[in-house]
Amino acid sequence: MYRICIIGDRDSVIGFMALGFSVYEADDSSAAGEILKTLAKDKENAVIFIVENYAVELRELIDKYKDLPLPAIVPVPGKDGSSGYGMENIRRATERAVGADILFKDKN
Description:
Elements: E1 3-8, H1 10-13, E2 22-25, H2 29-41, E3 45-51, H3 52-57, H4 59-63, E4 72-76, H5 85-98
Parallel strand pairs: 1-2, 1-3, 3-4
C-alpha cells in the first residue's frame, strides 16, 4: 500500500497526522533534504508533500525527481501561508504535461 508523507516544521505538519499522513519534522531545509532523499528511495511513498519554504531552498534536489513516476513531490503552504511557489510549480508541471498554460488567471 502506498503512503503519503509530509515534511516540514512541527507547527506546519503536525495536523496531518490526523489524516493518516506519515509526518516528518525537519528543523531546517538541510534536514528536510536528508529526509526527502530517504523517503524518495522507498517506492512505497507515492506522494511527498514538503512545505514551501523548504521546497524553495531544495528546488534543485526536487527537480531530480520530477520525471520519475514515484514519488510525486508537491510543495504546500506552511504555517506562514503561501508564497506562491507551490502553485507556480503546479502550473509548470501542468504546462509540461499539456503543452499550454491552462491555469492562467485573467490579470485584468
